[in-house]
């Protein structure tokens, strides 16, 4: 690692530590949430320094974007100020963290040196397979995508199922019977009444969705893929909901459509797996999709699977935001 | 030792500040933020194992020999989105708790629940 990069990461770490201290000290929770967003953004920069560009992309979209908006909407539903933390809590927590940290640092001495070329991770034969053989077997330059969607397709299927389950659970926890409430209609203040916000956000929407499509379908060649694209799609709908109100956003993306999207992405992923089984391969073995030309099969499989990921992630994130942002949820 | 391992130690410091937030604060939303800080630091530790000195992002291109390992990136990438989904589940539970007890402070909620029991 050259010294400039070392310097950059040290500065980023310093910002992170100060931000974490700020989060513990602040009693106003809006401030704490904004600091958490800053924390995510700086962590994303560190991921870039560590060569994990796909991860940085996801962290920036999720941590600094959607997650912040969700926390703010929850603050709007609850109280935004925290009670003074009693002193009796601080000491045990401090001692516990320092002890755990000390043990971890003691244990970290057994780790290979940072960035070493001969660490077990780098020497393992799988490294060769993912970086070199994948170019012949799958033909996708971004090895993160080929590992995510093909080599470790089972893993990703499981993760998508977790996202699906968590999203469904949130909808079940906060669902309510929609009813007409004239008082609610009068009380709500639309950001769309501010002309600049209205016009600028309207100009932005096509670009947000275009960018999401680019990220979705260009993930084979550059950083990106279904997870990132899904979050970017959702952030477009979140922006719409924030500016034009949740009722208008629901008119654009109705409840039934979100439910269909959430489940159809996961079904598409599983369906690709079942199709490859029906064609004589194993579950999620994309070679079977095009026996005469396995690389073609891999391309088609990865494309469909990533599309499934994108659809479910976009659906879950949008649905979660809608259900949090709907103030009637409290009644 | 210091020159080769200090990155791990910095990550552990971040991890522990997340743990400290979770343990010391009684407000449930603050605890969730702390959990996210802890989580992000764990992701950083994972990704740091894949970094090779002088390497570049694992997107194969002609003329580049050294790549960092793609596997930690894949595991962490999906984990971030899953972490977001589970965090929102935690937030939904917090909203329900607020609706039930009128507070998000752990101590107050416990007191409210205890008095409910004695009343019944």
- Please identify the top-level CATH class of chain B: Mainly Alpha
> Over the alpha carbons, how many angstroms does the gyration radius of chain A reach?
23 Å
Order of helices and strands of chain B: HHHH
Oligomer: heterodimer
> Sheet with the most strands of chain A?
none
CATH fold-level topology of chain B: Helix Hairpins
Give the mean pLDDT of chain A: 89
Total strand count of chain A, please?
Answer: 0
- CATH second-level architecture of chain B: Orthogonal Bundle
Helix content of chain A: over 70%
Low-confidence stretches of chain B: none
Number of domains of chain B: 1
Overall 3D form of chain B: elongated
Largest sheet of chain B: none
Computed structural class of chain B: mainly alpha
* Count of discrete structural domains of chain A: 2
Q: Radius of gyration of chain B over alpha carbons? A: 21 Å
Helix content percent band of chain B: over 70%
Counting DSSP H or I runs of 4 or more residues, the number of helices of chain A is 14
**Most extensive chain contact?**
A-B, 103 and 85 residues
What is the average per-residue confidence, as pLDDT of chain B, rounded to a whole number?
91
Q: Which labels suit this protein?
A:
heterodimer; A: 331 residues; mainly alpha; Four Helix Bundle (Hemerythrin (Met), subunit A); 2 domains; 14 helices; 76% helix; 0% strand; B: 120 residues; Helix Hairpins; 4 helices
């Amino acid at each position: 690692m050259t010294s400039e990069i070392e310097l950059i990461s040290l500065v980023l770490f310093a910002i992170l530590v100060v931000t974490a201290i700020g989060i513990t000290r602040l009693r106003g929770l809006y401030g704490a949430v904004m600091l958490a967003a800053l924390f995510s953004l700086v962590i994303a920069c560190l991921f870039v320094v560590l060569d994990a560009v796909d991860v940085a992309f996801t962290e920036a979209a999720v941590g600094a974007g959607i997650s912040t908006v969700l926390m703010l909407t929850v603050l709007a539903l609850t109280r935004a100020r925290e009670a003074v933390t009693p002193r009796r809590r601080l000491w045990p927590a401090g001692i516990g963290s320092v002890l755990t940290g000390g043990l971890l640092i003691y244990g970290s001495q057994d780790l290979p040196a940072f960035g070493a070329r001969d660490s077990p991770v780098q020497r393992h034969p799988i490294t060769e397979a993912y970086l070199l053989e994948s170019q012949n077997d799958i033909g996708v330059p971004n090895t993160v995508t080929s590992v995510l969607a093909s080599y470790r397709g089972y893993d990703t299927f499981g993760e998508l199922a977790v996202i699906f389950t968590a999203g469904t659970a949130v909808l079940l926890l906060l669902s309510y019977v929609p009813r007409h409430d004239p008082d609610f209609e009068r009380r709500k203040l639309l950001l769309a009444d501010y002309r600049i916000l209205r016009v600028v956000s309207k100009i932005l929407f096509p670009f947000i969705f275009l960018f999401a499509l680019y990220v979705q379908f260009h993930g084979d060649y550059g950083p990106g893929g279904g997870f990132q694209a899904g979050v970017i799609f959702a952030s477009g709908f979140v922006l719409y909901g924030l500016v034009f109100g949740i009722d208008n956003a629901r008119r654009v993306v109705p409840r039934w459509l979100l439910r269909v999207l959430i489940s159809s992405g996961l079904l598409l992923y599983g369906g690709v797996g079942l199709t490859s089984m029906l064609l004589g391969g194993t579950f999620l073995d994309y070679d079977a999709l095009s026996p005469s030309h396995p690389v073609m099969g891999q391309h088609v499989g990865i494309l469909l699977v990533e599309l499934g990921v994108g659809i479910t992630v976009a659906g879950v994130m949008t649905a979660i935001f809608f259900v949090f942002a709907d103030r009637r949820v409290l009644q | 030792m210091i020159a080769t391992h200090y990155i791990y130690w910095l990550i552990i410091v971040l991890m522990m500040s997340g743990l400290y937030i979770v343990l010391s604060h009684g407000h449930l939303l603050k605890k969730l933020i702390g959990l996210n800080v802890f989580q992000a630091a764990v992701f950083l530790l994972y990704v740091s194992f894949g970094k090779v000195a002088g390497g570049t992002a694992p997107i194969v291109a002609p003329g580049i020999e050294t790549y960092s390992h793609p596997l930690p990136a894949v595991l962490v990438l999906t984990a971030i989105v899953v972490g977001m989904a589970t965090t929102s589940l935690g937030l939904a539970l917090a909203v329900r708790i607020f609706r039930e007890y009128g507070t998000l402070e752990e101590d107050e909620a416990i007191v409210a629940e205890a008095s409910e029991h004695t009343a019944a």
